[in-house]
């Protein structure tokens, strides 16, 4: 009987020890889960900040690009007017030469 009681006492001690170890493991696991969630939230916040900055940079780039394209179009239109004026001046010059040659 004493042997049985000592075995039961030993088993109770082992169960108590296992309970303590289990609680420690669960505490560590809970801490790990909380740290993982916090890290994921930080990473999500960093990604949102990066996306917002990227979007702002892209808007700025598009606006600058659009302004540059408008300027280029205006320059091309101005060159077209200049070419038309030069063509008209050339035609008038040739006509003046032809008239001068014919009148001589």
The amount of helix comes to over 70%
Distance between the termini: 150 Å
- Give the overall shape, derived from the CA principal axes: rod-shaped
Mean pLDDT: 93
Name the helix and strand elements from N-terminus to C-terminus, one letter apiece.
H
Number of strands: 0
* Global structural class: mainly alpha
The count of helical stretches stands at 1
Task: Detail the poorly predicted runs.
Answer: none
Beta content: under 5%
Task: Please summarize the sheet with the most strands.
Answer: none
Radius of gyration: 44 Å
Which features does this protein show?
104 residues; mainly alpha; rod-shaped
List the helices and strands and how they pair.
Blueprint: H1 2-103
Structural features, described:
By secondary structure, the protein is mainly α. It has one helix at about 1-104. The protein starts with a helix and ends with a helix. The mean pLDDT is about 95.
Concise account of the structure shown:
With 104 residues, this protein is mainly alpha-helical.
């Amino acid at each position: 009987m004493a042997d049985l009681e000592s075995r039961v006492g030993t088993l109770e001690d082992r169960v108590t020890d296992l309970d303590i170890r289990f609680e420690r493991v669960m505490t560590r696991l809970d801490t790990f889960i909380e740290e993982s969630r916090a890290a994921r939230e930080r990473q999500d916040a960093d990604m949102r900040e990066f996306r917002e900055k990227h979007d702002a940079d892209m808007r700025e780039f598009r606006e600058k690009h659009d302004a540059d394209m408008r300027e280029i179009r205006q320059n091309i239109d101005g060159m077209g007017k200049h070419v038309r004026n030069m063509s008209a001046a050339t035609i008038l010059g040739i006509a003046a030469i032809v008239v001068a040659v014919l009148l001589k």
